[in-house]
Amino acid sequence: MKETPFGPVFDNVLEGIGKTPMVKISKIDTGPCELFLKLEANNPGGSIKDRIGLAMIEAAERDGLITPGKTTIVEPTSGNTGIGLALVAAVRGYKLILVMPESMSMERASLLS
Questions:
Q1: C-beta atoms surrounding 7 within 10 Å
Q2: CA angle 16-62-20, nearest 5°?
């Protein structure tokens, strides 16, 4: 990661996962507390679930359960976990099959395909 006047520049998209900004809330009375918000929507996949996707794949790699270019990951999902897994799988070289319920909207299904 390289710092620039415009913010950090990452070598790949996965380095951006979890490095989301925090904002101190100052316009709301928080009593004796300081309140900070972590802007998880700024993750590359747009959700806190990017962290979960990265953690799942890193744990499986660390345990020797999966190998890039050889393993196909299958995950039942209808939401942001699938988006996070798709992002990580694409960068790390895994084929990913997401199993979605028939009730899923066409918009959501096309986002995951």
A1: 9
A2: 15
Q: Which CATH fold topology does 2-112 show? A: Rossmann fold (3.40.50)
Residue-averaged pLDDT of the chain: 92
* Residue ranges per structural domain of the chain: 2-112
CA distance 98 to 110: 12
Q: What is the pTM of this model?
A: 0.83
Task: List pLDDT tens digits, range 78-91.
Answer: 789 999 999 999 99
CB contact at 8 A, 16 and 4? no
Tell me the catalytic residues.
Answer: 49
Strands 7-9 and 35-38: unpaired
Residue bearing tokens 């096309």: 110
The distance of Cα 31 from the centroid of its chain, to the nearest Å, equals 33
